[in-house]
Write a structure and sequence with these properties.
Blueprint: E1 3-4, E2 8-10, E3 14-17, H1 24-32, H2 49-65, E4 68-75, E5 78-88, E6 94-101, H3 110-124, E7 130-136, H4 140-148, E8 152-161, E9 172-180, E10 195-196
Parallel strand pairs: 1-10, 6-7
Antiparallel strand pairs: 2-3, 3-4, 4-5, 5-6, 7-9, 8-9
Length: about 200
């Protein structure tokens, strides 16, 4: 059964929506070019608005393929305040999250609000049993975001993810957090392989 995710998700303070190329300048200026924001991410800071446009185009193609969603996060006072990405894992039963927020919006609970809304959506689907994300071991602020979104710390994944702004040669240890459905899947359940509209 495909996982249904809307083009737009609304929370108390935020609108999560599909990115468009017109967002490129705001995303570039707000966070994509900021080395402090991207320090623990899997990509390097963008060098130009053209890089950001290419980034948006790439994620738009994944959206159209139906297996991944990357939302822009609009706050009332700040369009393109951040982004959140979710994808169906290869097992077809779990959804993996990644996120980014511009620095001048840190510490306001915005990302925890966006993440909680997306986790709730994912776990409400009968084919999904696990919603999870990870952060660099040296990034405790991201761990707090996940805890505020209702996720629990599960352990450390050794040499798990490349964070080229910290170490371009060796994968970094990461803390993993997850929220799972309280009930168990039926025996023999195979699960979904695609996100659908």
């Amino acid at each position: 059964m495909p996982l249904i995710l809307p083009d737009e998700i609304r929370t108390g303070r935020l609108v999560l929506r599909r990115p468009v190329l017109a967002d490129a300048e705001a995303i570039f200026a707000g966070y994509a070019a900021d080395p402090e924001v991207s320090r623990y991410l899997t990509w390097r800071p963008h060098g130009s608005v053209a890089d950001t446009r290419a980034h948006i185009s790439y994620f738009a193609s994944l959206w159209d393929a139906g297996d991944r969603r990357s939302y822009v996060i609009d706050a009332a006072d700040c369009p393109c305040a951040g982004g959140i990405d979710l994808r169906l894992a290869d097992d077809g039963r779990s959804v993996v999250f990644g996120y980014v927020l511009r620095r001048d919006r840190w510490g306001r609970g915005l990302m925890a609000e966006a993440l909680a809304a997306c986790v709730d959506r994912a776990l409400a689907h009968p084919g999904v049993w696990r919603a999870w994300a990870y952060c660099d071991v040296d990034n405790p602020a991201s761990g707090r975001v996940m805890e505020k979104a209702g996720m629990q710390f599960e352990g450390i994944l050794r040499c798990w993810s490349m964070h080229p702004n910290v170490d371009p040669f060796r994968p970094r240890d990461c803390r993993v957090y997850a929220r799972v459905r309280p009930d168990s899947p039926a025996p023999g359940y195979v699960g979904s392989r695609r996100l659908g509209l």
